[in-house]
Amino acid sequence: MPEARENEPQAPLIWTNVLMFVITGAIALVAVPWYGLAHGYSTAAWICAVLFTGANGMAVTAGYHRLWAHRTYDAHWSARLLYLVFGTMALQNSAFVWCSGHRTHHLHVDDVDKDPYSARRGFWFSHIGWMVREYESGKPDFSNIPDLKRDRMLAFQHRYYVPLALLTNFGLPLAAGLIFGDVWGMLLLAGVARLVWAHHVTFFINSLAHMWGKRPYTEENTARDNPVLALITYGEGYHNFHHIFAHDYRNGVRWWQWDPTKWLIAGLEKAGLARRLKRTPVFQIQRALLSMQFSRAQAQLAAHPGNGQSHIEQLRARVAHEYESFLTAVADWARVKEQWLGEKTRAVRESLEHVDLQSRLRAIERQLGLQLRRMRILQAQLA
Questions:
Q1: pLDDT given at position 337
Q2: What are all long-range contacts of 129-133, with beta carbons under 8 Å and residues at least 24 apart?
């Protein structure tokens, strides 16, 4: 629910943004279906609309978000150039503005005064409202992007953002329309409809992904994991994982989770166009999952009358035993990891002793994996 903002003066409207959202939204809702019914869209228009939409989405998720905002990997200049072209076409501001605001969001997530699109201020505010008024929390502060300001390609995009945005949004659909002989169909479908869809798909991560879904990794913020949202947001819907492990190039960390952005980045790595992909250690992921399970199990036990009921007492004892095992595993992992790093520092990576330490780390991770399964059974019994 939105938090009350007592005595807050009404921020002035940003008329450029208001007009853009209103005009493009009206065209998408009225003119696009009317033209389709009256004249129909060519196959080329549909194909270009799908391709441009996917390129815009991937440029935002793999480029603006995971590459530049969080530095989860390094990319070849050719990949970065494509991200900039189609990221500019997505019309979500320059990479400087986008990434600065997003880093602020992660630093102050849910803070109603500092988070640019805090979900605690309601769906409308976090979805689109924060962009139509000059809120103090939304003012760019480029002091948090010193690394990006050194990138000449990003600096060029920021300096000439308006003409580049007009060129990509009108020029590319118009060029495709002239090539395939369907100018109006291409401008409406691959131009306006594509833009409105691309906007709101991204905005859903700021709004719905903080309101709808599960929190398996942390409850310290409102971010949720939602596989339905992941389907339309190129994998960004696994938002609870992202907010606790923001420097992982994956959002859908499981192999079966729908995250085409991570597959694109992994594909670029295989093609030699990306490197230094950051991955959260399995142990840290398991530790976060188990911590949440223990927290919820304790809350469920506290809600039971408990005393005198033998099966509740048995479950309480089992949870306590599992928690002790968990603490022991965490301590063991920290000790073995320290030894492993020491061996690595002494440049004995190939030694049998070093290999043994690696196998011990994997054994602890397997132990936590088994404990995760046991805790799920215990939680089901408690429920």
A1: 61
A2: 130/206, 131/14, 131/17, 131/21, 132/13, 132/14, 132/17, 132/18, 132/21, 133/10, 133/11, 133/12, 133/13, 133/14
